[in-house]
Amino acid sequence: MQSVAFLLSTPHPGVLQVEINRPKKGNSMNADFWLECEQVFNAAADDEKVRSIVLTASGEKFWSAGIDLMQLAGELGQVMEKDDIGHKARALRKMILRLQRPVNAIADCPKPVIGAIHGACIGGAIDVLSACDIRYSSSDAWFTIKEVDVGLAADLGTLQRFPKIIGN
Q1: Any stretches that span the bilayer, and where are they (predicted)?
Q2: What are phi and psi of 47, to 5 degrees?
Q3: Of 68, 128, 143, 147, which is most buried, counting CB atoms within 10 Å of its CB?
């Protein structure tokens, strides 16, 4: 499969490395990421040659800066242009479900998914990592849930999965 948002490789037989590849933008998660993430993990789930998946990221400072805020602002702007609150709520729900599908594809993958983290892991990146079966981080990794700072709920997976992971 060809990918814009990811580099796909097989470092060992049976191991698929899925590398987020937007280092100049802090590996922020744009429309290509969300579309291809779901496709990559669904394809890996069906591929008999793949026995495990390692989710990594290119670059040195960021594992991922989270959701591409410029793109998110544009999408939220379109939601707010709806005529009434009912249409706004429906459009917002549709957008959230579309963003949740790729995260759920990771969580639902029948192969073990290992998150290998270095550097900054911000906002939506924690949603993605929360969907992994196992997470390993380097000593320079740091984590922050930034959605609350911009008035959003961390509803792509953090609220549902993170408390179990941290035991709280």
Answers
A1: none
A2: -85, 115
A3: 128
Catalytic amino acids?
Answer: 67, 124, 127, 147, 155
**CATH number of the domain encompassing residue 156:** 3.90.226.10
Per residue in 59-108, pLDDT (tens digit) is 999 999 988 777 766 676 676 777 788 877 887 788 788 888 999 999 99
* DSSP 8-state code for residue 158: H
Asked, for residue 17, whether it belongs to a domain, the answer is yes
In a domain, 85, yes or no: yes
Domain coverage including residue 120: 6-166
Judge whether 1 lies within some domain.
no
Asked if residue 10 is part of any domain, the answer here is: yes
Q: Which two tokens stand for residue 23?
A: 């280092």
DSSP calls for 20-72? E--GGGTT-B-HHHHHHHHHHHHHHHH-TT--EEEEEE-SSSEEE--B-HHHH
Q: How many domains does the chain have?
A: 1
CA 78 remoteness from chain centre: 22
